[in-house]
Specification:
- The protein has about 675 residues and is an alpha/beta fold.
- It has three domains: about 10-320 and about 330-350, Aldolase class I (TIM Barrel, Alpha-Beta Barrel); about 380-475 and about 640-675, NAD(P)-binding Rossmann-like Domain (Rossmann fold); about 480-525 and about 560-630, FAD/NAD(P)-binding domain (3-Layer(bba) Sandwich), CATH 3.50.50.60.
- The strands form seven sheets. An eight-stranded parallel beta barrel has the order 3-4-5-8-9-10-11-12, surrounded by seven helices.
- β22 and β23 (about 610-615) form a beta hairpin.
- The protein binds flavin-adenine dinucleotide, NADP nicotinamide-adenine-dinucleotide phosphate (NAP) and iron/sulfur cluster.
């Protein structure tokens, strides 16, 4: 065992069984549950994580009955046939020396189908479906369904189950007065409202016996009003243990909460103070291990959290999409080789949200273990990759991993391409980890890196390369309008990368991902909110005393931007329509909270000493600004293509060089890796 992470790598004795370390791989719905050949793929996915050393894996949520499904075709476990389909998963995890629990998830009013139910008939703000309020008999039936589901999970070979009691799902809906207005045995007093989860745990324990892990995911901070507080979390934890739980896991924030809880701008370990507060308040009243979670993404952070006593175990979910060998690398003292989850949500949650199989921006193999593998190539080739942005880095490292001889040319003095701009945006510093990872992979797989080398087509043609990959990225689009050369005008590259100064009043031209990021950059308070949970909590109105119901400070007034910023776009559709599915709302809320003005349906006329001249609905006006920052999209950089092809080179285009529209690092990295395995 590495001495660097003694707390993280210490075994955890659960009485009837022992976990090999303090790492719980948190539940994630991967979409494999419903995919063709999904169970075989799921088995490969989880087995790889078990081989990588995870202490206890928790699967994505499986519903205990039809009403509890995520959507109409969401996965369910109600009979033996279903249970048997899970057998390869549990078998392969056990073969790798791992342990795995199945999460039982009843979505309640979050269910996106006509059969959704709730404690009361109150529609969720994030769902169009109105739930049917469960009758007394149906509540009892649901409890039985949880128990049957757990028994079937045991038959399927699972070592335990996680009862999902947080994130605003059915159990949470029973506990919070916000969603429970019943006046029977299951509503009214707190004792009545927690009866539902307590009866579920008792029933599961009863049917599964004493030697079965029961994790209860307890909502410790709801982040919605008219919900729980610390006293209630304490009371619930005591009752949950008494009812038979083996482990208590932390849940932070309902899905409908308007406070970011897992996105990149949330500080690392940004909510472990919640588990710590509960743990300290509980004292000896609860003996079972407490698990903490949210934005723990390196072994160093996990070790720190455990060493200072925030919890007994850490839950990390997305970090195991990013790197299946996270634990093994920590054990071997190779943490600098860990591909770190940057909390972008772009390939995991954003995919799940639109019904696509999930993957990972930094690791396109995630959930594709059966089809994307960097195995030794039959013929070793000489490959040139031009451009060390994410696309080029991915292609170069994956090609070298397959055994090819790779030269990577980069015009700039460092690797990263546009990620060097992205990582300077407040709250996007995690991209530094991606570059650290690629830097180490270039070395590990022996890629010849030529920095500060703007390679020409002639040089490439003379180099005798079997394949030439153009990962040369994009060029910012410069709109053709009078005054575009005025000294007030600069591009996002000038602003963020080159650090050119800007005045107090700024217009941002273009409201795509980059326009939003630039607005955040310009309006930033330059505090430590992205690193310090206390500052972050203050900015988002979180009550760190946990005394307020739901954990929100009443009438919180967010701070406004010190600069006067106007965000502009030509189109008339909604602002932020192209932003990430599960994180776009955070950018939108941030921009609004900071008082940034938004004007859509704009025609740009000219820039002069007066400022930016625009017309909106046929009316001309002048924005009296000191600067105009252009964020008007980009065009592919294919400068070398023609000459190379004419010279007979085998040319491949990836990332921005291939297609600039809807480009992001996810596509660039994915394309790079997928091309590499074809060489
Ligand atoms: P690039 O990153 O543009 O890299 C191309 C490289 O090629 C450059 O380094 C360039 O110097 C080099 N090059 C060009 N010609 C030559 C030559 N002849 N010889 C040698 N080298 C050459 N994406 C996300 O997925 N998530 C985000 O949150 C995100 N945030 C962003 C925020 C900002 C402010 C910006 C600007 C971008 C953001 N992006 C984000 C987009 C992402 O950075 C790009 O989509 C991605 O970098 C494109 O990768 P690429 O490899 O195609 O090209
Ligand atoms: P984008 O999303 O395509 O937005 C470009 C903006 O420029 C749009 O607002 C467009 O809107 C405007 N525009 C286009 N042509 C113009 C012209 N000739 N004159 C004036 N305005 C013009 O592109 P982007 O913001 O440059 O981002 C590039 C890529 O990086 C995106 O595809 C994005 O996925 C990625 N990115 C991702 C993130 C993330 O968090 N996931 C963050 C940043 C960037 P109008 O036509 O309405 O004016
Ligand atoms: Fe983490 Fe982004 Fe990968 Fe999701 S897609 S696992 S958030 S790096």
């Amino acid at each position: 065992m590495s001495s660097k992470y003694p707390h993280l790598l210490a075994p955890l004795d659960l009485g009837f069984t022992t976990l090999r370390n303090r790492v719980l791989m948190g539940s994630m719905h991967t979409g494999l549950e419903e995919a063709e050949n999904g169970y075989a793929r799921m088995a490969a996915f989880y087995a790889e994580r078990a081989r990588g050393g995870v202490g206890l894996i928790v699967t994505g949520g499986i519903a205990p009955n039809e009403a509890g499904r995520v959507h109409e075709h969401g996965s369910i476990m109600v009979d033996q046939a279903e249970a048997m389909r899970h057998r390869p998963v549990t078998q392969q995890v056990h073969d790798e020396g791992g342990k795995i629990a199945m999460q039982i998830l009843h979505t309640g009013r979050y269910g996106y189908h006509k059969k959704s139910v709730g404690a009361s008939e109150i529609r969720a703000p994030i769902n169009v479906m109105r739930p049917h309020a469960l009758t007394h008999d149906e509540v009892l039936e649901t409890i039985r369904d949880f128990a049957t589901c757990a028994a079937l999970a045991r038959e399927a070979g699972y070592d335990g189950v996680e009862v999902m009691g947080s994130e605003g799902y059915l159990i949470n809906q029973f506990i919070a007065p916000r969603t429970n207005t019943r006046d029977d045995d299951w509503g009214g007093s707190f004792e009545n409202r927690i009866r539902f989860p307590i009866e579920i745990i008792k029933a599961v324990r009863e049917i599964c016996g004493p030697d079965f892990i029961i994790i209860y995911r307890l909502s410790m901070l709801d982040l919605v009003d008219n919900a729980g507080d610390l006293d209630q979390a304490v009371q619930l934890a005591v009752e949950v243990e008494k009812a038979g739980a083996t482990i208590i896991n932390t849940g932070i924030g309902w899905h409908e909460a308007r406070v970011p809880t897992i996105a990149m701008m949330v500080p690392r370990a940004g909510f472990t103070w919640v588990t710590k507060t509960l743990k300290e308040t509980l004292g000896d009243r609860v003996k079972v291990p407490l698990v903490t979670s949210n934005r723990i993404n390196t072994p160093e952070i996990a070790e720190m959290v455990l060493a200072r006593g925030d919890a007994d175990m850490v839950s990390m979910a997305r970090p195991f999409l990013a790197d299946s060998d996270f634990v093994q690398k920590a054990i071997e003292g190779r943490s600098e080789e860990i591909n770190t989850c940057i909390a972008c949500n772009q390939a995991c949650l954003d995919h799940t949200f639109v019904g696509k199989v999930c993957s990972c921006l930094v690791n396109p193999r995630a959930c594709h273990e059966t089809e994307l593998n960097m195995t030794p190539a039959a013929t070793k080739k000489k490959i040139a990759v031009v451009g060390a942005g994410p696309g080029g880095l991915s292609c170069a490292t994956a090609s070298a991993e397959c055994g090819h001889k790779v030269t990577l040319f980069e015009a700039a003095d460092d690797i990263g391409g546009q990620l060097n701009i992205a990582r300077r945006i407040p709250g996007k510093m995690e991209f530094n980890e991606t570059l650290r990872y690629f830097r180490n992979m270039l070395k590990k797989f022996g890629v010849e890196l030529k920095l500060g080398h703007r390679v020409t087509a002639a040089e490439l043609l003379a180099g005798g390369f079997d394949e030439v990959v153009l990962a040369t990225g994009v060029k910012p689009r410069i709109p053709n309008m009078p005054g575009i050369d005025h000294e007030k005008v600069l591009t996002y590259v000038d602003l963020v990368l080159k650090g050119k100064p800007v005045g107090q009043k700024v217009a941002v031209m273009g409201a795509g991902g980059i326009g939003y990021d630039v607005s955040v950059y310009l309006s930033d308070f330059e505090d430590d909110a992205h690193e310090n949970p206390t500052t972050f909590a203050a900015e988002w109105g979180i009550d760190t005393s946990l005394e307020e119901k739901g954990g929100l400070i009443p009438d919180h007034e967010p701070e406004k931007s010190k600069r006067e910023i106007t965000l502009l776009k030509r189109s008339k559709n909604k602002f932020g329509a192209t932003l990430g599915k599960t994180t776009g709302w955070i950018h939108k809320v941030t921009i609004d909270q900071r008082g940034i003005e938004k004007i859509g349906g704009v025609s740009y006329e000219k820039v002069d000493d007066q400022g930016l001249h625009i017309s909106v609905k046929g009316e001309s006006k002048v924005l009296d600004v000191d600067n105009v920052v252009i964020c008007a999209g980009q065009t592919p950089n294919r400068d070398l293509q023609e000459e190379l092809e004419q010279g007979g080179a085998k040319v491949h285009l990836i990332g921005g060089a291939d297609e600039a529209s809807e480009l992001d690092a996810k596509r660039a990295i994915d394309q790079g890796a997928r091309l590499a395995v074809t060489f």
